[in-house]
Amino acid sequence: MRVLKHRVRGKRALKVCDTDQVRRNSSVLLFVALLPLAIMVWSYWPVITNLFNDWQTSDDYSAGQLVPIVALFLFWRERKLLREYSLVPCWWAGISLLLLAEAASIHQFLAGGHPSIERYLMIFALTDLVLLVAGWQIFKAVKWILLFLFLMIPLPGRVHNLISGPLQTIATTGSVFLLEAFGVTVSRQGNVIMLNEITPMAVAEACSGLRMMTAFVIVAAFMAYMVKRSRLKKAILLLSSIPVAVMCNIIRLCVTAILFMIASSELAEKFFHDFAGLVMMPVAVMLMFAELWLLDKIIVPEPAEAKPQHKIKKATA
User: Fold this and answer.
1) Residue 186 · residue 179 · CB < 8 Å
2) Contacts with 11 (C-beta within 8 Å, 6 or more apart), sequence order
3) Half-sphere exposure of 161 toward its Cβ, with a 13 Å CA cutoff?
4) Residue 8 confidence (pLDDT) above 60
5) Local structure of 95: helix, strand or coil
6) By C-alpha distance, which of 114, 104, 94, 84 is closest to 43?
7) What is the DSSP string of 171-234?
8) CB 151 within 8 A of CB 64
9) What pLDDT is stored for residue 11 in this prediction?
10) Which of 285, 172, 302, 313 is nearest to 232 (CA)?
């Protein structure tokens, strides 16, 4: 019996040694990963600083600076799951895609470059780095987090101009409709709303709701990742963040218009730019949770197939 216990203890000790060896190998591999990561940060440093400046100067895309912080939180949240996978670097795919991304980045630099393409290439290079160091298993486990990082990139100029104009028109039209529904005398001249034929209120490009839309899409993507729902419900939640943002922006414009009529224009502008943005975010989150509740009532999951139960025949004496 003592020999058996000794053998069992020996196996346990051997298992502990193997676990320690795996941890050491993982630590060495993570340390080696710092080198290509440092090279990538060095090569994309002008792109990173330019992106940070856009976050600070552009109100429409200021919410993008929260995306890296949220992504780090999501990585930390999945830490227990990631520990179950072993690091198996995929050298051939990782190095090939990383060299392709670097070559495209150098080409953009020599050709004058387009800021949006260089920013997308930076995230693509980071994705290749995960594949290079960690392998396919961990890459598949964190693919949605890596895809989430694309939300921190401001829209290209052409896309921005293509969206902001219609959003501005929709905000003006929706505000006029809602104000008239509440009995306010409103007339419209382009993107200028005349309140009671006395007070003009201009719906400028900054009032189009693009800033609110980019923020709501980020929040909806975070909610879709966190909630335990089917992919269909998550996709509907993410796509619905756009009409929710448009609706909240119209409500904000209507409240601002009422403040224009009953109070001063300074108070109305302060409400629109400062207070209303903070109030609309909880309202949007509540609307999206209500949408999830409604989706649970409408889209009922299919019942799982019952496993065949084998009858146990009792032996007769």
Assistant:
1) yes
2) none
3) 2
4) no
5) helix
6) 104
7) HHHHHHHHHHHTT--EEEETTEEEETTTEEEE--GGGSSHHHHHHHHHHHHHHHHHS---HHHH
8) yes
9) 41
10) 302
Residue 72 has which token pair? 């780090």
Among 46-50, 86-90, 245-249, 266-270, which stretch is predicted with the lowest mean pLDDT? 266-270
pLDDT category, 113, cuts 50, 70, 90? low
In eight-state DSSP terms, residue 89 is -
Residue 43, sorted as left (phi over 0), alpha (psi -120 to 50) or beta, turns out to be alpha
Would you place residue 129 in the very low, low, confident or very high pLDDT band (cuts 50, 70, 90)? confident
* Cα 244 from Cα 141, distance rounded (Å): 30
Alpha carbon 125 to its chain's center = 18
Cα 248 to Cα 281: distance, rounded to the nearest angstrom: 9
Above 80 in pLDDT, residue 132?
no
- Structure tokens given for 151: 């939300």
Whether 236 has a pLDDT exceeding 50, the answer reads: yes
Selection from 246, 244, 253 nearest residue 271 by Cα: 253
Q: In the block, which residue shows the tokens 């719906």? A: 203
CB-count burial class (<10 Å; 0-12, 13-18, 19+) for 101:
buried
Residue 135, pLDDT > 80, answer no
Q: What are phi and psi of 35, to 5 degrees?
A: -65, -55
Which residues are CB-neighbours of 288 under 8 A, at least 6 positions away?
A: 219, 220, 223, 237, 240, 241, 244
CB-side exposure of 143: number of CA atoms within 13 Å? 7
User: What is the radius of gyration, based on Cα positions, of the chain?
Assistant: 27
Of the candidates 221, 288, 206, 209, the one whose C-alpha atom is nearest the C-alpha of residue 67 is 221
Highest mean pLDDT among 173-177, 219-223, 246-250: 219-223
